[in-house]
Structures are given as C-alpha cells and as structure tokens.
UniProtKB/TrEMBL annotation:
Residues 7-123 form the VOC domain. SUPFAM superfamilies: Glyoxalase/Bleomycin resistance protein/Dihydroxybiphenyl dioxygenase (SSF54593). InterPro entries: ArsI/CadI-like, Cadmium-induced_rsp, Glyas_Bleomycin-R_OHBP_Dase, Glyas_Fos-R_dOase_dom, VOC_core. This is VOC family protein. It comes from Pontibacter anaerobius. PROSITE patterns: VOC.
Length: 177
C-alpha cells in the first residue's frame, strides 16, 4: 500500500489583496506559505493534500463558482480545526447534523477576504434527502444552488371593456370594480 501524496490537487485563485489573503490562509491552514513572491503566494498542504496558489489580480476575482472544501477523517479533527478557526475569528457558519448534498454531515464554513467559501466537514452517512434549508433562497453555502423563488404569476386584464360602460370610469363605488 502506497503512502504517496501524489497525485495532489492544485487550485489557483485570483485575489484582490495578496496581503489580506495570505494573512487569512496562514490562519486557516495553520502554516506559512511555501512560496511568496510579488503578488503571489503558494501553500503546499499535506492534510488535505493540496497545492493552492493565489495570484493578485483584482480584475479577475470570481467568487461565485460555488465553494471549496475538504472532508476530515474524524469528528475530533473537525472539532480541533473548528477550535483553531474560531480562535482566529474565521468561522462564518457552523452546522451540526445537517443533510447537505444528500449526506449527513457536521461542518463549519469560513470565507476568505474575496468571499470564497470553504467548507470543512465530517461525513456521517449518506442521506436520501437534502435539508430544505439548502433549497431555499437563503442557501448561501452548500453544494446545492439556491432554489429559485416561485413568485405568483400576475396577468394583466384586458380593460378595453370599460368603453362598453357608456364612458363611465372605473372608480371606487362606480359599479365596475
């Protein structure tokens, strides 16, 4: 059985402020970047096995692609990571026993300086349903897109018939309404 960390995933994100981003991710990942250059920082993580780099380019920042995240192996690891994230005031949301993406999970969310959401979760078991919260308009963080709000359809009524009332206007108490 191989203990190789390869292949390892690589992600590169555009950011608006490399200093704020580096400060955030150093706290979130609990380690300094492996490489820092002008307008660039790269972290090489063993757990999770990931290479992530950041390129300062405010014009290309795009936060609405969904979210990033990683699954931890144990409930204890989730609690430890949550404690560290709380100590750095990074946690934006906590969820315990939620059914997101058709799985029962405990998780927490953080958001980087450009609004990129990260989910850190512990998987309990598969579920045959998705928490209704994630199918509503306030679904700000989950792998499911927010459901489109159903608005009542209103059809304008053809009011040309008013001319049939011998010039009477439809006024309150006028009998036509």
């Amino acid at each position: 059985m191989s203990t190789s960390i390869f292949p390892r995933m690589h992600v590169s994100l555009y950011v608006s402020d490399i200093s704020k981003t580096t400060e955030f991710y150093t706290s979130f990942f609990g380690q300094e970047p492996a490489k820092v250059k002008p307008n660039y920082a790269k972290y090489i993580l063993d757990t999770p096995s990931l290479i992530i780099s950041f390129v300062e380019n405010p014009e290309r920042v795009q936060q609405n692609f969904g979210h990033l995240g990683f699954q931890v192996e144990t409930q204890q690891e989730l609690e430890q990571r949550l404690e560290v994230a709380k100590a750095h005031s990074l946690v934006s949301k906590e969820e315990i026993g939620t059914a997101c993406c058709y799985a029962v999970q405990d998780k927490f969310w953080v958001e980087d300086p450009d609004g990129v959401q990260w989910e850190v979760y512990y998987f309990h078991e598969d579920a045959e349903f998705n928490d209704p919260h994630y199918e509503s308009t306030d679904a700000s963080a989950c792998c499911m897109p927010p459901a489109k709000e159903e608005k009542p359809k209103v059809q304008l009524t053809d009011i040309s018939f008013i001319s049939d009332f011998e010039g009477e206007a439809c006024t309150p108490g006028g009998g036509c309404c």
